[in-house]
Amino acid sequence: MSLDGAVADLRRRLLAAGVLAELGEPGVFGLGGAFTRVFDAVDALYVAAFAHLRADVWRFPPVEPRSLFERTDYVASFPQLTGSIGVFAGGAAEHAELLRVRAEDGRWEDLLVPGGLMMGPAACHPLYAVIGGTLPVGGRNYDVLGSCFRHEPSPDPMRLQSFRMHEFVHAGTAASATAHRDEALPRLAAMLGSLGLEVADVPANDPFFGRTGKILASNQRHQALKFELVTPVYGDDAPPVAIASANYHEDHFGTAFGIFDAEGGVARTACVGLGMERTVLALFARHGMTTSEWPEPVRSVLWPHG
Amino acid sequence: MSLDGAVADLRRRLLAAGVLAELGEPGVFGLGGAFTRVFDAVDALYVAAFAHLRADVWRFPPVEPRSLFERTDYVASFPQLTGSIGVFAGGAAEHAELLRVRAEDGRWEDLLVPGGLMMGPAACHPLYAVIGGTLPVGGRNYDVLGSCFRHEPSPDPMRLQSFRMHEFVHAGTAASATAHRDEALPRLAAMLGSLGLEVADVPANDPFFGRTGKILASNQRHQALKFELVTPVYGDDAPPVAIASANYHEDHFGTAFGIFDAEGGVARTACVGLGMERTVLALFARHGMTTSEWPEPVRSVLWPHG
């Protein structure tokens, strides 16, 4: 089967089984009861696997202030993925005009104006604004779960426009941050292996935009800053799909958000992030659409209490 | 203390205790570990209180397709709350132009174009698209949790621009839908009472826009379609704050989304919805910023296993 065929087939099976429901745009789905039950179990397992980090918990809304977004330089690197929120700022006359355009099937959103908010592109961005200041000796760990928006409409159910990342972030020194990344990756790989997923770790890069982006991506790979855990979803001939990543950011966020280590140096940060929807869908792809028929060892890891 | 003073005081205490963290725009906060622990406990309690409904679980992303949004007529009634997502659709030249505008501190979001996605304004809207078709005899219940966006920036921490609603929705006949609403409200009030919140149910209306909106709001109240559970947060002299609502939609969504009851009539729908962030913050306002010091009866309801 071609890759396109395999993608269409998985999508069809997920929809037919009610794991997902179509909402009318690519990469935007309703998530059904079976999906949600697996999601919650995977999430609990993940938190247990990293409980030793005694991480500070932070949760963030799917939107972030433009002022925060701008400190990450995201739109310079990933304009194609960016989402900005437009809002209505008019009165009765402007509303009448909007409704007139709409009645003529016009694009009334053109009458909206930027509202000072952006779609959050990464679960951990707002964390760096919260951390600020000086870290304790040894650095600190954080548990962050949030909704990410990336404008990359695709028929592939593994590529959503809005999805959740659960990240364990460390902020500290170069030594403590790289140690965090390098210890987290095999631990996460073991957890995913216990769920019956074949995973491999591979050097990776972010999808930087344009010609300059190619150089940035190549540097990121060359310096071995980012690794992904990939798993086969569409057969052995198709490229495997990344379901998790571990990233050393060097001083990128420390500099942008004014975070310092205990010695007063600019903090280094690293994160391990699990793509929650991708992981759940990889499990359905691997074990089938009916969770009651999943292999007993997998079920007992996900639901130890039945 | 004036209402403004009481609002500022609660906000200051929530931030000082790390229950919330400022992100840079009104109504957009980071939610800390204590907040999250209470959130999860309230959510579990709520699900247990409505377990008898055997509701189908659906979860939705914070964005929804424009085509779905348009079927609800939301922008006609609530333009002031609407959010539309703008995306970058250009190539290298347009990106260079965007970065030039940005370098001059210009509003580069003006160069984005509508991306076919809207911010979801209500957790249950996408559900109606999923239900479609004909319901079984007796109707059906649904458990929906989702992120809602409403553009109403405010210094009041009880009024977020992005928040989660957890809803139990019924679709069926007029009789079964109004029964759902009327049974759910006292049940939810009892649950909130067990957490030490004083709640009262009051007739309510949605914040319809403009002069025509005043008439719609008055009709909604007059026909007793919507009720809210309100609790005092800012003292006895200030208006109490709505933390939950129960709503009979008549045939509004049944007609818009082509949902029919078992007899072939247009389905009637009703929902009970708990404002998750508001409820959690009302608990902090009521019992203080340190959960270990909350009254023992409240703690044992939230965390029966300690």
List keywords for this structure.
homodimer; 306 residues; alpha+beta; BirA Bifunctional Protein, domain 2; 2 domains; seven-stranded mixed sheet; three-stranded antiparallel sheet; 39% helix
Describe the protein in words.
- The structure is a homodimer of 306-residue chains.
- Chain A has two domains: 3-83 and 121-302, Bira Bifunctional Protein, Domain 2 (BirA Bifunctional Protein, domain 2), CATH 3.30.930.10; 88-115, no CATH class.
- Helices cover 39% and strands 25% of the residues of chain A.
- The first copy, chain A, contains eleven helices and twelve strands.
- In chain A, β1 and β2 (28-31) form a beta hairpin.
- In chain A, α2 (33-49) crosses α10 (276-287).
- The first copy, chain A, starts with a helix and ends with a helix.
- In chain A, 47% of the residues are buried.
- The model of chain A has no long low-confidence stretch (mean pLDDT 96).
Low-pLDDT stretches of chain A = none
N-to-C CA distance of chain A: 37 Å
CATH architecture type of the largest domain in chain A: 2-Layer Sandwich
CATH superfamily of the largest domain in chain A: Bira Bifunctional Protein, Domain 2
Structural category of chain A is alpha+beta
Number of strands of chain A: 12
Give the overall shape of chain A, derived from the CA principal axes.
Answer: globular
Q: Concise description?
A:
The structure is a homodimer. Chain A has about 300 residues and is an alpha+beta fold. Chain A is built from eleven helices and twelve strands.
